[in-house]
Specification:
By secondary structure, this protein is an alpha/beta fold. Helices cover 36% and strands 25% of the residues. It is built from 11 helices and 16 strands.
Length: 335
C-alpha cells in the first residue's frame, strides 16, 4: 500500500496563505456545524518542561477524512536552525482506515496559524485598519505579516522582539520580501502605539502586551501562548476586549491568556463571546463599532491541520508532487 510523503518545501509550494484562508474558513464552519469530532489535544512534557510532544486527532464527516497531528514543541529553538514546532500530520481515509499521506507539520502549523488569524482579522478588524504591529520575529511573525497584508490595506508595519538584533534582521528581510518598509521598534509599547492590528507571536510566558497601550478600535490576534500558565496579554488587555476564540473548550482548558484573568476573578466564562466559526455561519455577531477592541485568542486546532493536509494531498496528487512509499496495512495472503 502506497503512502505519499510530502516534505516541508512541498507543503509551502502546495499551500499558500491565500488558499489556506479559504480552507480554514470552511474547516471552522464545519466544526461549528457539528460535522467534525475533535478531542482536546494530549500533551506529554519532558523533564523540566524544556519541550513537549503534542498529539491531536480529529475526524471530519464532510468530507469523510480523519487524521492525527504529532508535533514536538521546543520554545528554546527560537533563534536556532530548528523550528520550535516539528512533526507530521498523518492523513487516513474513513472507508478502510488506510494511511494516505504523511505531511510535514512545521510548514502546515506556520501557514494555517497565520491563515486563521487572517480569517479572524477579516471578520473583526476595522475595514480601514492599516497600521500593523507584530510582537515577535519568528516563523509566526512572518506568516502573520503575510496574512495581514492579504486582508487589510496595510500601510505601516512595526515589529518588536528580543533580542533587538532579531528585530533588525526581521525588519530588513521582510522589507525586501514585501517591498515596503517594516520598522524595527525599540520596545513593545512603541511598536503597538496607535496600531489598528496587533499580532502577538512570541514564546514569552509572561505578558508583553498591556491593556493601557492598546488603541481604541484595535484588533488583536494573540497567538504565542498555548498553555494554562503562560500568556502574552495582561489582564487589563483581555478585560477591555471583546473576546473571540477558535474553540471554547480549548480556551477553557488551555489558554493562559483567558484562564489567568479568570482565576483572578476579572472575567468569567461568558467573556468568550463566540468562536470564529460561529461568526462565519452568522450565529454570532463580530465587531459592533469602530471604537471597540476585539481580541482573537488562537490555540490552533486539529481540524485546521487535517483540512490543510487534505488540501495539500489533493494538490500533490494533481501535480505529481511527493514521494510514494510502501507502508503495510494490506493483507499478505498468509494472515
Amino acid at each position: 500500500m502506497e503512502v505519499l510523503i510530502i516534505n516541508q518545501a512541498q507543503v509551502r509550494e502546495l499551500l499558500t496563505i491565500k488558499a489556506c484562508m479559504d480552507v480554514m474558513a470552511e474547516a471552522l464552519k464545519t466544526l461549528t456545524r457539528g460535522k467534525a469530532h475533535m478531542p482536546l489535544r494530549s500533551v506529554m512534557w519532558l523533564p523540566d518542561r524544556i519541550g513537549a510532544l503534542g498529539m491531536m486527532p480529529t475526524y471530519m464527516t464532510d468530507p469523510g477524512i480523519m487524521g492525527l497531528k504529532v508535533i514536538s514543541v521546543f520554545p528554546g529553538n527560537e533563534g536556532t536552525e530548528y523550528d520550535s514546532h516539528q512533526g507530521s500530520v498523518i492523513l487516513f481515509d474513513t472507508e478502510h482506515g488506510r494511511p494516505l499521506a504523511i505531511v510535514d507539520a512545521s510548514a502546515i502549523t506556520a501557514i494555517r496559524t497565520g491563515a486563521v488569524s487572517g480569517v479572524a482579522t477579516g471578520l473583526l478588524a476595522r475595514k480601514t485598519a492599516c497600521d500593523l504591529a507584530i510582537l515577535g520575529s519568528g516563523t509566526q511573525a512572518h506568516a502573520h505579516l503575510e496574512a495581514m497584508l492579504r486582508v487589510r490595506p496595510i500601510r505601516r508595519i512595526r515589529v518588536w522582539s528580543l533580542p533587538h538584533e532579531r528585530t533588525l534582521r526581521f525588519a530588513e528581510r521582510e522589507s525586501k520580501l514585501h517591498g515596503m518598509t517594516v520598522e524595527p521598534s525599540g520596545s513593545a509599547q512603541e511598536a503597538v502605539s496607535g496600531a489598528d492590528i496587533i499580532c502577538t507571536t512570541t514564546a514569552s510566558p509572561e505578558p508583553i502586551l498591556f491593556g493601557e497601550w492598546i488603541a481604541e478600535g484595535a484588533h488583536i490576534n494573540a497567538v504565542g501562548a498555548c498553555t494554562p500558565p503562560t500568556r502574552e496579554l495582561d489582564t487589563r488587555a483581555v478585560v477591555k476586549s471583546r473576546l473571540f476564540v477558535d474553540l471554547r473548550a480549548s480556551t477553557l482548558n488551555e489558554a493562559g491568556d483567558f484562564l489567568i484573568p479568570k482565576k483572578e476573578g476579572a472575567i468569567r466564562d461568558d467573556h468568550i463571546l463566540g468562536e470564529i466559526g460561529e461568526i462565519l455561519t452568522g450565529d454570532v455577531e463580530g465587531r459592533r463599532s469602530e471604537k471597540e477592541i476585539t481580541l482573537f485568542k488562537s490555540l490552533g486546532l486539529a481540524v485546521e491541520d487535517l483540512a490543510s493536509a487534505r488540501h495539500i494531498y489533493i494538490k500533490a496528487l494533481e501535480k505529481g508532487i511527493g514521494t510514494s512509499v510502501e507502508l503495510g496495512g494490506s493483507r499478505d495472503g498468509n494472515a
